[in-house]
Amino acid sequence: MTASLASLPASSSATPSSVTAQAHALLQALGVPLDQVQAEGGWPVRSPLTGELLGQVALQPASAVTAVVDQAQRAFLAWREVPAPRRGELVRLLGEELRAAKTQLGQLVTLEVGKSPSEGEGEVQEMIDICDFAVGLSRQLHGLTLATERAQHRMMETWHPLGVCGVISAFNFPVAVWSWNAALALVCGDPVVWKPSEKTPLTALATHAIAQRALARFGDAPEGLLSLLIGERDTGADLVDDPRVALVSATGSTAMGRAVAPKLAARFARALLELGGNNAAIVAPSADLDLALRGIAFAAMGTAGQRCTTLRRLFVHESIYDTLVPRLVRAYASVGVGDPREPGNLVGPLIDEAAWQAMQQALDAARAAGGTVHGGERVLTAAGAAACYARPALVEMPTHTGPVLHETFAPILYVLRYQTLDEAIALNNAVGAGLSSSIFTLNLREAERFVSATGSDCGIANVNIGPSGAEIGGAFGGEKETGGGREAGSDSWKAYMRRATNTINYSTELPLAQGVKFDLDA
Length: 522
Ligand code: NAD
Fold this sequence. Notes:
Layout: H1 18-30, E1 43-46, E2 53-57, H2 63-79, H3 84-113, H4 117-137, E3 145-146, E4 153-161, E5 164-168, H5 176-188, E6 192-195, H6 201-218, E7 226-228, H7 233-241, E8 245-251, H8 254-266, E9 270-274, E10 279-283, H9 289-301, E11 311-317, H10 321-334, H11 353-368, E12 372-375, E13 393-396, E14 412-418, H12 421-428, E15 433-434, E16 436-440, H13 444-450, E17 460-463, E18 475-476, E19 479-480, E20 487-488, E21 497-505
Parallel strand pairs: 5-6, 5-8, 6-7, 8-9, 10-11, 10-16, 11-14, 13-14, 16-17
Antiparallel strand pairs: 1-2, 3-4, 4-21, 12-13, 15-19, 18-20
Bound molecules: nicotinamide-adenine-dinucleotide.
């Protein structure tokens, strides 16, 4: 049922709801004492499902950052000496604890962020997967042995632990992003200090409690190896400024990256930036349209358009536009929007009122630019105005301008016609962000061109799959305004270690490189 905002009932009463009670039961089951979420006058945490208050958490003062990094730095000095496979044992235990907690933590993700139960559990599965990956990695951290120009010399690379790793995470993957970083950082020999989103402290507290159980079972990990800083962006800023934090892995908006990156550059610290996306897909004349429709629908509407990899721009070849787009419009009109815990609802809530306002502003701008908007209205649920449910919007745009050029973190899909593949690739690349992209085609030449050097300029380029829903085995991240960082699989681990090139002379001579002569008459 849809309604205008003005006609919505006021926020429901403050009596503990089933949502609040369920969140408290989950927190207790996961090992979080309730007094941590019942701080008088603390930071309020609301469920986007109903708008109800889930708890109030105490924010740590800025001074806490120094103390926490002090301890993390001491932990680093000890942890870097623990053999990597033994470090992997801690991550193996973390994976076991996450398996045991999967259902409950997934449910808490649903309550705090509004993801569907399947996506909530899927997020925890991603944490388990990266743990498995990192355990294997702990026996494979390797360097090269290289040919040297000097006789009886050996040249090699060695990889060493880097130092304290600061993790700043976004609300929309409230726990998985921590695990992508933490699992790799731990096996690489680095302690982790985590500043989660101020919108998702409950799942962070629960994850921290789960990690504490793994640490207890491990036995002799140094104090402060994994720490949590609950705070606002100023806490994140203090973490960024601390000279002992060797690497800051920051996930969030491009605006956040613009604030963080220069500070890290100024102190020559390492930055791993995972920022906003403005992802596109191309549907070519030969595409399997049934498959494309399903891929587009999940990528554009899933997680209520609140994934960094959400599909936001769709380029449809003019020969199939009038076949595909009306089908998409019908899918947008009929998709179930509402509490995602109820069967049939595939699109859950926006995170908060600000997200709803941003969505409406973008739709107004699209209309002003000549766009035809399908959907985008407020959807009324039993929660009334306290929760922000919006029907996903499909916007047919005459030109690639205005709001199309920027990420609005809401379910809006801008659709445009194209004539040639060159034109579609140029449009794909014509935005600041460079995270994810797709082409739907059965034409081998088109598919190969799209993933080639003259194709998509994004960190992720897919064929016959939408742009969202990456596996942890690959390196994850994007180019340009997405920040250039890579997390998770492949060789992403190298960001968490420092490389040393070693040359060892086992001869009785001292030949210099490049044949340089420097003979002292001593
Ligand atoms: P956000 O930028 O508002 O906040 C992200 C985190 O950064 C929060 O923990 C916040 O407290 C912190 N922060 C903000 N300003 C800061 C500053 N100046 N110094 C230090 N810390 C600061 O983002 P959000 O609304 O939580 O998340 C949505 C955004 O994140 C979208 O743009 C989305 O595309 C992006 N995102 C990117 C990825 C990726 O891997 N590329 C993954 C998830 C989300």
